[in-house]
Amino acid sequence: HVAEKAAERFEAQTIDLSNKVEDLNRHVNDLxxxxxxxxxxxxxxxxxxxxxxx
Length: 54
What we know:
Keywords: Coiled coil. By secondary structure, the protein is mainly α. The protein has one domain. Helices cover 96% and strands 0% of the residues. The longest helix is centred in the middle third of the chain and has 52 residues. It is rod-shaped and about 80 Å long.
């Protein structure tokens, strides 16, 4: 009975951790996309500044 309870608790923790990992992966992907957008925006701004200085 104790082993059964422990197994159930372990399974619940495994599912919980799996969900947390999925959430973190989504967050990492969102940050990667945001970084790409910001880099593109930064490149555009740098081009504008260079054109302004010429």
